[in-house]
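Bumping my old thread because nobody answered last time. Still need a sequence for this structure:
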């Protein structure tokens, strides 16, 4: 494959509150192991998002989102259009909440804050949210998650599912590839130990 896969980190200075940006590092490394060249691009201003193969909308504080509304008022409509067109978008926590409201026109309900590791259909991650949303949700090729941090590191099968057709038919070229899955499994189990 000669095309370089471009992974967009949207406003990482605003939307990386819990290390969500590390998900792109995991995707970049997995693509490399599949023999696919990939680059992470840091997007800090309004741009044409259709030129990216993967877009990350991370988690940010209320102040960060207020600043972004002034910096790039078309950010959420642009990302929502990517989702509905079948592009690969990962939206994390507040990014998930804001994007879901934009796409579905619903106001997300809030209740008591949940701060704990969760296992959702074999996918493990840390939730720290008041939003009444399922921990993992797919809309076409896009992944919405309440799990903070590098969820793909703990869940490599989820990363590969997300990459989908970008790695379809490819065989990993790294001799330690299976070891990574074993380490991720240990990490998922460790999350629930006292």
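Sorry it took so long. Here it is:
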């Amino acid at each position: 494959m000669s095309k370089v896969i471009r992974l967009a980190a949207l406003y990482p200075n605003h939307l990386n509150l819990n290390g969500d940006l590390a998900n792109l590092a995991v995707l970049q490394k997995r693509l490399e192991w599949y023999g696919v060249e990939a680059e992470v691009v840091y997007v800090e201003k309004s741009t044409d998002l259709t030129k990216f193969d993967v877009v990350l909308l991370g988690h940010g504080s209320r102040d960060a989102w207020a600043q972004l509304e002034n910096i790039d008022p078309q950010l959420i409509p642009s990302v929502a259009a990517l989702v509905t067109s079948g592009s690969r978008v990962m939206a994390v926590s507040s990014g998930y909440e804001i994007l879901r409201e934009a796409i579905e026109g619903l106001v997300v309900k809030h209740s008591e804050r949940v701060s704990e590791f969760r296992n959702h259909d074999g996918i493990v991650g840390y939730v720290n949210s008041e939003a009444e949303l399922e921990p993992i949700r797919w809309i076409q090729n896009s992944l919405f998650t309440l799990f903070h941090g590098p969820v793909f590191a703990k869940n490599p099968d989820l990363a590969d599912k997300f990459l989908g057709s970008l790695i379809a038919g490819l065989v990993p070229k790294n001799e330690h590839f299976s070891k990574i899955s074993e380490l991720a499994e240990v990490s998922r189990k460790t999350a629930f130990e006292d």
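Residues 177-190 form the longest helix (14 residues). Let me know if any region looks off to you.
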